[in-house]
Design goal:
It contains two helices and eight strands; from the N terminus they run βαββββαβββ. It has helices spanning 14-23, 80-87; strands at residues 7-11, 27-34, 38-44, 52-57, 71-76, 98-99, 106-111, 117-122. The strands form two sheets. The chain has a four-stranded mixed sheet, covered by helices on one side. A four-stranded mixed sheet has the order 5-8-7-6, with no helix packed on it. β6 (98-99) and β7 form a beta hairpin. The model has no long low-confidence stretch (mean pLDDT 93).
Length: 123
């Protein structure tokens, strides 16, 4: 039976991206150089296997995200804490937290340093 391993996307600056994801609760689990071409950085939530692979290709600092990708989603206990930590770095949600339906969980979207969308959904 197949099992889901990870999501990978390309980044323009390792330290900037790792700092962003750490503010969302991820932990850096390791770095793997790929010859002289790239470095893969593996990130995971506490107690979980690494599910996010960030690939830095030497000499490339930006990528065209295209129109097909939308977002990854994180279920978090407290929406306000991560938003405050991100705001300290000038990162604001696309729009203030909201609920899709009455009584539903609060959510919002932020963009990582490379422009990838992250949905933050409060438990």
């Amino acid at each position: 039976m197949p099992s889901y391993l990870h999501t990978c996307y390309r980044i323009g600056d390792i330290d900037r991206s790792v700092a962003f994801y750490e503010k969302l609760g991820f932990e850096e689990r390791g770095r793997l150089p790929i010859r002289d071409e790239a470095i893969n950085v593996f990130m995971g939530m506490p107690g979980e296997d690494p599910r996010l692979e960030l690939t830095y290709n030497h000499g490339v600092d930006a990528y065209d995200l295209g129109t097909g990708y939308n977002h990854i989603a994180l279920l978090i206990e407290d929406l306000d804490g991560p938003l405050e930590r991100l705001a300290a770095d000038g990162i604001e949600p696309e729009k203030p937290p909201y609920r899709i339906r009455e009584g539903g969980s609060r959510l919002c979207f932020v963009r990582d340093p490379d422009g990838y969308r992250i949905e933050l959904l409060e438990r």
